[in-house]
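Table 4 source record.
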Amino acid sequence: MLTLFCACKKSESFSEIPYLEFTKFELKDSVDALGNITKLCELHLHFTDGDGDIGLFEQDTIPPFEYNLFVNYYEMINGNLQIINTDPPYHIRIPNLTPTGQNKSLKVDLKYDVDITYRNSDSIKFELKLFDRALNESDWVSSGLIIIE
């Protein structure tokens, strides 16, 4: 699940290269469509983009446009963080957010629920990178170590 909150202000200008920031996480218990109890990690992110070309159109499905927020997932195994390849991947498609009008600057707070029910560790970590439609990319950002109790 993905929740976006957009704010556009004429007085602010940002780089055309996306800026991505991890702000916090929340662990939540939930119930899936079949009534099974699940564990979610809600990732809170903030990003800006000066020319507003964040987001994919429905017809954007051919590489490199199948995803625009890439997520690496790690689990602590034998005292070391190891990347885990999930199937399907935790990458997501943020829909087109380009503002109408003259000012295209974007300032967005995003919440992304990741299902971590079937993890094999009580310690996990996420790394995330955002791409715009011009294929400019943010730096990788990290959640830091998340301890699941």
